[in-house]
Amino acid sequence: MLLDTFAWIEFFNATEKGARVNEILHSNPCFTSAICLAEISEWIEKESLEIEKIMLFVKSFSTIIGLDYSTLELAGILKLKKRKISKNFGMVDAIILATAKQHCLKIVTGDKHFEGENAIIL
């Protein structure tokens, strides 16, 4: 399972959707795209939370997948294709989708624009 930023934020906010993420974390091998670390750190800063504690948790409970050329090239292509369907589909979303496709992972998210992909929409 590839957890996107939405899933992590729901988990740390202990919402109902976060409880589902918790179940996934404890019953599946989980991964996080490196691009999500930037979004998570932005959220942490905005909320004035403890960055070290949260980032350590993310890194301990998921394997971080780095970005490589083939993933980034695929992301550009996917962004153009998905933009025809959803105007809100940005480059970070495209990188997450490309990462999932490259590693044959299901995306755990709350973002509706991942519908129709190999995703669990919270």
Structural class: mainly alpha
Strand order of the largest sheet: 1-4-5
Q: Count every helix, treating DSSP H or I runs of 4 or more residues as helices.
A: 6
The name of the CATH topology is Rossmann fold
Helix-residue proportion = 55-70%
Report, as a whole number of angstroms, the end-to-end distance: 13 Å
Order of helices and strands: EHHEHHEHHEE
Determine the mean pLDDT: 95
What does it look like?
The structure is a single chain. It contains 6 helices and 5 strands, in the order βααβααβααββ. With 122 residues, the chain is mostly helical. It has one domain (2-121): 3-Layer(aba) Sandwich (Rossmann fold), CATH 3.40.50.1010. Helix 1 (5-12) packs across helix 2 (16-27). The longest helix has 15 residues, at 69-83.
